[in-house]
Design goal:
The structure holds 2 protein chains of 2 kinds. The C terminus of chain A is likely disordered. By secondary structure, chain A is mainly α. Chain A has a single domain, classed as Up-down Bundle (Formate dehydrogenase/DMSO reductase fold), CATH 1.20.1630.10. Chain A has a two-stranded antiparallel ribbon. In chain A, helix 6 packs across helix 7. Chain A is built from 11 helices and 2 strands, in the order H-H-H-H-H-H-H-H-H-H-E-E-H. In chain A, 74% of the residues lie in helices and 1% in strands. In chain A, 58% of the residues are buried. Chain B is mainly alpha-helical. The radius of gyration of chain B is 24 Å and the shape is globular. Chain B has a two-stranded antiparallel ribbon with strand order 1-2. Chain B has a two-stranded antiparallel sheet with strand order 3-4. Chain B has a two-stranded antiparallel ribbon with strand order 5-6. Chain B has one domain. The chains are: A mainly alpha, B mainly alpha. At the A-B interface, helix 2, helix 3, helix 4, helix 5 and helix 11 of A face helix 2, helix 3, strand 2 and helix 15 of B.
């Protein structure tokens, strides 16, 4: 296996990790106006993701950086082609990130309502746009011989890619609903389960349609090992998704959340294996497509990156897992506005 | 304006804006971690209150640093795709490693710090801030190594077949002499910035807050000392490292940058240092100019009588070397940004020294005094945190504008690096970013002022164990791991 193939896999893993992790915090943001009946509800919801959302977002930055280093031509062509969609994603991520930190810093209802809107829109837009972007990568974009994009914003709005957007939107909403079911109590938890099941049904329809369409029309090859693996992963994603929704409906949120995480992993794997060995297909001519072969960095860069990733990725996974362990408890509203009595801290 | 100009304005605006928050994050992270450690070591509640107070300001600042940082990583590909294609092998690697090594550390351990007051033992909690602060330092190292490579490309070979620069030695890129000189300079600037912020706010609290309690006054006296000492050490280090960097760039890497920063048109031996100029900087005779003989020779080479090359000579030399075209940066920008950088840094250091002096032998600044001295000190307290911010920005403007017309020095011109986007797209993003950043700046400043004015809290401190024993010392257990999660946001 070439190092460039290894880095194609690494980038797929980073995107999968990003969607599994930030997927649920996007979902929580999307559900904020629907499940949060009052300020306390919304605070509880935001606090379920408070300690982890920023770490989740770093998966995106690492995916972006890894693409820049391992496949400069892919990074350059994709980021400049998707200029306006990425601008929207950036604006969304900016207002959302600031909102988490600033929302609680003033009491005023209008201040909080404004930041709530920022969290909602800042979560909704990327959840939708990442799916549209992935749909367009699979679909291919008009890329000329100079690796320049010759389309415009409306090029991205083809039915297949839009279905991809609906898929990620509903899938992440489901994921967020299940996470909230896992992290809250009482009425909020019940509402979260109901929302998860509702968005889950939509995700099953959209996801099945999108993955089936991918396997039928946008695989690099139907007969290669990767092509067959892609179809298997798509089937696995469907099974995991349906089991997740069922488990959620039964109120078994731990199982449901895990199953849905598997569904997201399998779906991302299905997309990347369908794409391989292309990284950004050109709709103008297959010869103009960027592939793991013609877009990759030279061996020296890939070797350095491989060593660094092998050494440090285990640490990253370990301390991120530790964070989730530290904050494993459910989040509830405090019984009264007063702070609870505390035991003397010097006791030992 | 064409795509190139719009893209340059966007990169300049977003980057200068991003770097308003970065130095505060880097320096203040360490100071807050130090305050928390002082609390754990001494058990004195004032250190905990200072940790919470400056920690809050740190987080308000950090939020904007993080979100504007995402734009930085994306816009190389979005706006500078020709550049990205050429240099991805070399420039992309530090960015990817920065995300993997540093961004994960910062974000994860800050999450633990913000939400972990009642979940983690105090020592582990303080360690989280130390680790997050170390993460910011690592982050700075990798991104500055990437920038140093643009200033002075090393450790690569150009592959004409693929049109890409290939990595030859990663160690050479990481330990680029331009990086070894530039990184300490930037980090020293970060400590000057954060120290000035801490000291300025503390001084303001001591002078302006009516009825500040004796406890809080003592706390802010300590903060003032810690901040002022940090700022002064930072300033000294800034001068030393700046001098190293200036010599390296003038004599070896980019003589044009120093010539442009000095508006020195004709090679001179010995060369005078221009303190300030009134009138044109276009090489004609200025209306008024103050110069100090021989000082530029010394600053640039370490020798009072050596030669410093002028713009006109360098332009001729570069035309012979690289072909026709102008190799001269925009002189008024380089000349004045260089002076502002130095001036702001020195002024901040001076105010920090005075502020420290007012606390000598247990004194309270301007204690019992009214009138001019007190007013002067208040003005100093208000300006002190702002000066290094201007110094940082103008320093970057000097070094980036001074490299022009090059994007990668000697290899790729800025005009060749830009994406083939339409001007409409880039205009849209430029307007959106500028407006959004402007609004966020107003909101951020409003919040900062709100929490600066509020000062230290007097309430019992949750998570600080400010409980029955009354001294607010750190407990040995958190007592909270089994309790429900606290709402922080």
């Amino acid at each position: 296996m070439h190092l460039s193939d290894l880095w194609f896999i690494a980038i797929a893993v980073l995107w999968a990790g990003y969607f599994v992790l930030e997927g649920f915090d996007f979902g929580v943001g999307i559900l904020l106006p629907f499940l949060g009946r009052d300020d306390m509800d919304r605070r509880v919801m935001i606090n379920t993701i408070g300690p982890v959302w920023d770490g989740n977002e770093v998966w995106l930055l690492t995916a972006g950086g890894a693409t820049f280093a391992a496949f400069p031509a892919w990074y350059a062509a994709m980021f400049s082609a998707f200029y306006l969609p990425l601008l929207l994603v950036l604006v969304a991520l900016i207002i959302r990130g600031v909102a988490f930190e600033y929302r609680g810093k003033r009491e005023h209802p209008r201040w909080r309502a404004g930041w709530d809107a920022a969290i909602f829109l800042g979560s909704l837009l990327p959840a939708l746009l990442w799916g549209v972007a992935f749909g367009n990568v699979l679909h291919g974009i008009p890329l000329n011989g100079a690796q320049h994009f010759t389309g415009n914003f409306f090029t991205f709005l083809n039915p297949y890619a839009l279905l991809g957007g609906v898929t990620t939107l509903t899938l992440f909403t489901l994921h967020g609903g299940l996470f909230l079911a896992l992290k809250t109590t009482g009425e909020l938890r019940l509402r979260a389960i109901a929302a998860a099941v509702a968005s889950g049904l939509a995700a099953i329809v959209a996801g099945a349609g999108f993955l089936a369409w991918t396997e039928l029309s946008y695989r690099a090859s139907a007969t290669s090992g990767e092509g067959i693996a892609s179809a298997c992963c798509a089937a696995l994603a469907a099974v995991a998704l349906i089991s997740g929704v069922l488990a959620g409906w039964k109120g078994r949120e731990g199982l449901a959340f895990s199953a849905n995480a598997v569904a997201i992993l399998a779906a991302v794997t299905a997309l990347f294996t369908a794409l391989y060995p292309r990284v950004l297909p050109s709709t103008l001519s297959p010869a103009l497509s960027l592939t793991t072969g013609n877009a990759a960095s030279a061996a020296q860069t890939l070797a350095v990156m491989t060593v660094v990733a092998c050494i440090f990725l285990p640490f990253v996974l370990a301390y991120q897992a530790w964070t989730y362990w530290v904050f494993r408890k459910r989040v509830t509203a405090p019984p009264t506005a007063q702070s609870q009595p505390r035991t003397p801290s010097r006791a030992s | 304006m064409n795509v190139l100009d719009l893209s340059r304005w966007q990169f300049g605006i977003t980057t200068v804006y991003h770097f308003l928050f970065v130095p505060i994050t880097i320096g203040l992270g360490f100071l807050v971690a130090g305050f928390e450690t002082a609390w754990i070591r001494t058990g004195r509640e004032r250190w905990l209150r200072l940790t919470k107070f400056y920690g809050k300001l740190f987080l308000i600042n950090f939020a904007l640093g993080v979100v504007t940082g995402i734009v930085q990583e994306f816009q190389f590909g979005m706006n500078w795709s020709a550049y990205s294609r050429l240099v991805g092998n070399i420039f992309g690697a530090p960015l990817a490693i920065e995300a993997l090594l540093a961004f994960f550390l910062e974000s994860t351990f800050l999450g633990l710090w913000i939400f972990g007051w009642d979940r983690l033992p105090p020592k582990v909690h303080a360690a989280c801030m130390w680790i997050a602060a170390t993460g910011t330092l690592l982050s700075a190292y990798f991104i500055l190594a990437a920038n140093a490579w643009m200033q002075h490309p090393v450790g690569y070979t150009y592959n004409a077949k693929t049109g890409q620069d290939n990595l030859q030695s990663f160690a050479k890129v990481m330990f680029n002499p331009a990086q070894l000189a530039g990184f300490p300079h930037v980090i020293a600037g970060c400590f000057l910035t954060a120290g000035s912020l801490v000291a300025g706010i503390a001084l303001w609290q001591l002078l302006r807050r009516p009825g500040i309690t004796a406890d809080h006054a003592t706390a802010f006296r300590h903060a003032l000392k810690a901040g002022a000492i940090t700022a002064i050490i930072g300033a000294v280090a800034v001068v030393i490292t700046g001098d190293t960097q200036a010599k390296l760039f003038t004599t070896q890497y980019q003589p044009m940058k120093m010539a442009a920063a000095e508006a020195l048109y004709h090679t001179a031996q010995p060369a005078p240092f221009s303190l300030l100029t009134i009138g044109s900087l276009n090489g004609s005779h200025p209306v008024f100019e103050i110069t100090i003989p021989r000082v530029l020779s010394f600053l640039a080479t370490g020798n009072w009588s050596s030669q410093v090359q002028g713009i006109d000579n360098l332009q001729q030399q570069y035309q012979a070397q690289f072909g026709p075209g102008s190799y001269v940066p925009v002189i008024p920008v380089t000349y004045w940004s260089f002076r502002l950088m130095i001036g702001m840094g020195l002024l901040a250091a001076l105010i920090a020294i005075v502020a420290l002096w007012t606390t000598r032998r247990g004194r309270t600044p301007a204690h019992g005094k009214r009138g001019l001295w007190r007013k002067t000190l208040i003005a100093g307290a208000v300006t002190l945190p702002l000066l290094p911010l201007i110094g940082n920005s103008t320093g970057w403007i000097m070094t980036e504008m001074g490299r022009q017309p090059w994007l990668v020095y000697g290899q790729m011109k800025t005009s060749a690096g830009v994406s083939a986007n339409s001007a409409g797209e880039v205009l849209a993003s430029l307007v959106i970013f500028t407006l959004l950043y402007g609004v966020l700046a107003v909101i951020e400043a409003g919040l900062m002022l709100k929490y600066i004015k509020a000062g230290l809290t007097s309430e019992p401190l949750p998570g600080g164990g400010g409980g029955a024993d009354g001294d607010g010392g750190p407990g040995t257990d958190t007592g909270g791991a089994g309790a429900p999660m606290q709402l922080v946001y």
